[in-house]
Amino acid sequence: MNFVMLFVLLAAGFGISFIVLDVSRLAARRRWPSAHAVMIDNFRPFAVFLALFAGPALFVQALWRMRASGGLSFADAALAVAIACGWACCYGLVIAQCARLLGVAGD
């Protein structure tokens, strides 16, 4: 694995998760889960869908809000960025493998 492949995996992982997040926001304006509603009712299918398929995007947006409000130190923010990049890289790897199985990507 080289740096170009790592960049492609990160771009695919973050790209797909942000696309899923934005489409979900457009499709479910009235049903957007709040943290309080999810804590009361443990299983909300829409909230679970968002956590599974838009996880890195949600994590980055929460990180952005917390960093802007001054709630994170620099070390915590750096660790959170590393976790978000790792998560997005895993998503990108899944996307690349799916593309390979479908015959879209060349060997």
Describe the protein's architecture and organization:
This protein is mainly alpha-helical and 107 residues long. The chain contains 5 helices and no strands. The two termini are 14 Å apart. The model has no long low-confidence stretch (mean pLDDT 82).
Please outline what is shown here:
The protein is mainly alpha-helical and 107 residues long.
Structure characteristics:
107 residues; mainly alpha; 0% strand
Show the helix and strand layout.
Blueprint: H1 3-27, H2 35-40, H3 45-53, H4 55-68, H5 74-102
Helix pairs in contact: 1-4, 1-5, 4-5
InterPro entries: DUF6949
Transmembrane segments: 6-24, 45-64, 70-94
Organism: Rhizobium herbae
